[in-house]
């Protein structure tokens, strides 16, 4: 759940000299709003949706090399549209291919579990020829930023990323069909109808390829999770961050949960999740269906933020009782370069019980934690009033 793209608009305003349109105008022709079922059609909807303000393609995975050493990886492309149709009149009249209204960002990281190393890389550029872009043509999706790129074609995904301290070249193939979160992909993030995103996932993908940490390339294989999400409205005022979980269990099931945290420490009632059965069918989870208990904490030596660091997750009606533990404590993406946002994004291990017979399960996954080094930026409604509870 990469709402960090919305937060990056703070930096976009400075970088581009533009003022983004306010969220509450989302339904009046400035940007398109998500207000109901998304009716995905593939392969087209794997590609960009430029009528919406922000969008992300997000991959996380856990892999091992030929010697059995474990790694986690994150690879995310963001697309942010800088001006809306309504504000286009303030855009300079003279046309140029270099006068782009789209920003492309890349976040990627590798967790080298055996060596207890975490390295990450960020970059950003306007979508201009030869530098960055996002497109769909003849069934092929391509996003690129300098030498890094994401290609989706014929149900195959290729991730190629280059940074100073890490690189990766991975090929992914879905092992389950896409899962649509919420009501046909309509995923609520607030009380107002447009406080929502179109959101689907490939909850289990086979991964093969190679990655580099420092100078060493290794051949790896394992399993990954993919999210694709697009929206116009940011989070409600008063939401300071979120905790997001994607877990792949040994019985062939998967669990996604997110909790939107409010300033008073409570959890927003639209927080929700999805349980994916081994046959690929899903069960939607509302806030009252699950409980997330924090069991420990970790203080970052980089940002000073105090993050939760171990959890017990219970979903009583599914018989799930899981303990989730970071495979490394320090997996913080410290805000450098383009967007300056600190967040924790890391590989985790899972142990517990599942089902009516309380069978033992294990697994791996990823957790994203935001808002612990300061509230996540959320645009205020035009009226200055919050539409949240």
TrEMBL record:
Domain spans labelled AttH: 54-232
Key word Hydrolase present: yes
Protein name: Predicted secreted hydrolase
Any matching Pfam family: Lipocalin_9
Signal peptide: 1-23
Molecular function per GO: hydrolase activity
Species whose genome carries this gene: Desulfacinum infernum DSM 9756
SUPFAM superfamilies: AttH-like (SSF159245)
Keywords: Hydrolase, Signal
Superkingdom of the source species: Bacteria
């Amino acid at each position: 759940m990469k709402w960090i793209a919305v937060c990056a608009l703070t930096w976009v305003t400075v970088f581009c000299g533009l003022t983004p349109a306010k969220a509450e105008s989302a339904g009046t022709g400035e940007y398109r709003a998500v207000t109901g079922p998304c009716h995905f059609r593939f392969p087209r909807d794997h590609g960009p949706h430029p009528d919406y303000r922000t969008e992300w393609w997000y991959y996380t995975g856990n892999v091992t090399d030929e010697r059995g050493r474990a790694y986690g990886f994150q690879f995310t492309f963001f697309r942010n549209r800088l001006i809306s149709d309504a504000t286009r009149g303030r855009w300079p009249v003279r046309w140029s291919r270099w006068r782009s209204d789209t920003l492309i960002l890349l976040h990627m990281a590798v967790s080298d579990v055996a060596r207890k190393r975490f390295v990450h890389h960020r970059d950003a550029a306007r979508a201009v020829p030869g530098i960055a872009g996002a497109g769909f043509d003849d069934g092929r999706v391509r996003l690129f930023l300098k030498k890094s790129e994401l290609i989706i074609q014929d149900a195959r995904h290729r991730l190629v990323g280059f940074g100073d301290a890490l690189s990766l070249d991975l090929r992914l193939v879905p092992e389950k069909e896409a899962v649509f979160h919420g009501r046909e992909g309509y995923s609520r993030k607030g009380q107002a109808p447009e406080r929502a995103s179109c959101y689907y996932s490939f909850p289990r993908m086979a991964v093969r390829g190679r990655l580099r940490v420092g100078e060493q390339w290794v051949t790896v294989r394992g399993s990954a999770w993919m999210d694709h999400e697009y929206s116009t409205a940011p989070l409600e005022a008063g939401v300071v961050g979120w905790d997001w979980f994607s877990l792949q269990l040994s019985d062939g099931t998967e669990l996604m949960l997110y909790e939107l945290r409010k300033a008073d420490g409570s959890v927003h009632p639209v927080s929700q999740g999805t349980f994916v059965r081994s046959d690929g069918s899903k069960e939607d989870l509302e806030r009252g269906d699950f409980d997330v208990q924090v069991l420990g904490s970790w203080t970052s030596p980089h940002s000073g933020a105090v993050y939760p660091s171990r959890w017990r997750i219970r979903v009583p009606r599914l018989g799930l009782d899981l303990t989730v533990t970071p495979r490394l404590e320090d997996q913080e993406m410290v805000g450098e370069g383009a967007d300056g946002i600190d967040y924790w994004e890391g590989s985790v291990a899972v142990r517990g019980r599942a089902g009516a017979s309380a069978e033992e399960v294990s697994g791996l996954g990823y957790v994203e934690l935001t808002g612990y080094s300061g509230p996540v930026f959320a645009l205020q409604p035009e009226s200055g009033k919050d539409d949240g509870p």
